[in-house]
Amino acid sequence: MAHRAVSTPVVGQYAKPVAHAPKRPRIGFEGKMMTPGLILLASLSILPFFALIAMSFSRVRLLGGVNLNWIGLNNWARFFTDGDLWMAWLRTIVYFVLTVGLEMCLGVGLALLLWRVLRGRNILLSLLLLPMFAAPSIVGLLGRYLTDSTFGLYAWILHGFGYSGDILGTPVSAFAAVVLMDVWEWTPLIALITLAGLSGVSQSVREAAAVDGARGWMTLRYIIFPAISNVLLVALLIRSMDAVRYFDIIWVTTGGGPADATKIVPVLLYETAFRFFNLGYAAAMGLALLAFSIFIARTFVRLLDVRGLTR
Q1: Which residues contact 132 (CB under 8 A, 6 or more apart)?
Q2: d(CA 290, CA 284)
Q3: Digit-coded pLDDT (tens) for 101-145
Q4: Do the Cβ atoms of 265 and 259 come closer than 8 Å?
């Protein structure tokens, strides 16, 4: 049986050469322009971070220059067995919950009230934002002056209601005072961020909800809050990260007293590092505080996502 010969054309002889696109450099012009800034940022953040890790496993000596003597896990063993430190962590958590909770509730409430105001909103907003522009140390000095038992305005008002004690001299009242000072300063920030989110809520959606019979709390729950959930998340994260490591107001007003009633972890860390010069143990405390801040941020993101606020 005869087989038909099949000829296969030689493709390589007739194919046109394919022009390859020029390879783009891995680092473009923008990357080259950003390289010096990134190197500077790395030198100011990454390198000190690794130095802090090394310090947490060492005994730092400052005489004759900075010397790191390796001591292994001694600082971390002390970290987990230090009763004063764990009491400071407890006070930090209570301080964090009170300040962030009050600021979120009051800030959202004030933003909703300003959102309803049609005339004079800019004037009211300007007055509301005044505490936020003051330095925390100035707020602490002002609070210390107003709560002074001799000539303070707040002390005089409380004296009229029968309270004759020293506000910053009693553990409970001192802790409440520094919490309220923080709330007074940073509630306007939450109100401003929330008001910016409220300005983006569609008017047509609210009108449609009103036509369907949604009133009051139903409008807030099903229309407004879902629309500004991402904005509330940003405000919550900003204040959470700042409240965990807050220092200024407490140090200016009470210095951690009375009887360590207001000595949260940042205050204890400062005393350990710059009063007792135990920099190795302070480094371990700082790393733990950083880990706690990251944990708080991730916890809030997951919590809001589970509740459906970020969807």
Answers
A1: 185, 186, 188, 189, 192
A2: 10
A3: 999 999 999 988 888 877 777 888 888 889 988 899 999 999 999
A4: no
